[in-house]
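User: I'm writing a short report section on ligand binding and want a predicted complex to refer to. Could you take this sequence and 3,4-dihydroxyphenylalanine and write out the structure as tokens? A short remark afterwards would be nice.
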Amino acid sequence: MTLAELARAAEGIWAQWAEAARNLQSLEELEALRVQILGRKGRLTQLFSALRELPPSEKAEAGRILNTLKERIEAALAEKKEALAQRERLERLARERYDLSLPGKWRPLGKLHPLTQVRLEIEEIFLRLGFDVATGPEIETEYYNFEALNIGPDHPARDEWDSFYLGEGVLLRTHTSPVQIRVMKERKPPVRIICPGRCFRRDNPDATHSPVFHQVELLWVEKGLTFAHLKWVIGEFVRAFFGPNYEMRFSADFFPFTEPSAQVHIRKKGTEKWLEIMGAGMVHPRVLEEVGYDPEEVTGFAFGLGIERMAMLRYGIEDIRLFWQNDLRFLSQF
Ligand code: DAH
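Assistant: Sure. The structure tokens for the complex follow:
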């Protein structure tokens, strides 16, 4: 090989590089081209081996030509490599791009039933006032549900048309008042409790009746309690639950287990209509005697309210059946 041949071959290599480089599409193709030219058996590597065949006087010039070519190709390779890498990066970014304007996958979140929310809220109000939460069985005996509460055998509530009897003398409790008796029989005064729970009555379901419903019972027994304390407690409750825009009114009523007994109404200030919220009264001396308390020693008061009724008044719900229908359009509003 002569120096002139070597120089031509070098030009040929550059031409090959320049031609191939224009059409390179990927880093893999670039690497293949590099191997073809600069690899162990590459065209330029072979040309370097051919240096040996040249006479010593031409070796320096030939070496310069080949080294210059090698440097040019290596620089061009590096530049091309960076350009291809950048292009591939951009293409990958475009492919993997997230469309942030797409609506997300909606996962419905469960929440507490409105009746549970209202019950918890009522519990919290009375826990703040120093009451404990007590519970009792839903299956009761006539003794706890009626007798101990001074409800005589001829009381209409005892009628099997009003109560669900499970057997002789055993029924589903018709109110939470029997919990009063159970708690008083277990504890010595002072007693300060509320009892939330399910109650059952043989009512045909309609907008205001449900055979299953919830009550909260309150009982406070201690030395020296008067009707004024009862009024204060209920006033605190009305303010906490309904807010400052409501006023309340007491009127005479009758319950066998309280004396005197009252019915409590509330009214939004500036409106006409009074709405009943609960029955209440001073615990009847006969009830206190029944549980072994001395009515000369302690007095007490109690009330019973319906949780459904509280929720209906609070949210303006007009049909009690909505609470049981499990219609998410209704439930999801709370
Ligand atoms: N137990 C009564 C009912 O179900 C409600 C009630 C009224 C409870 C007066 C009381 C009370 O504790 O003092 O209708």
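A remark for your report: The two ends are 94 Å apart (CA to CA). The chain has two domains: 3-96, 114-331.
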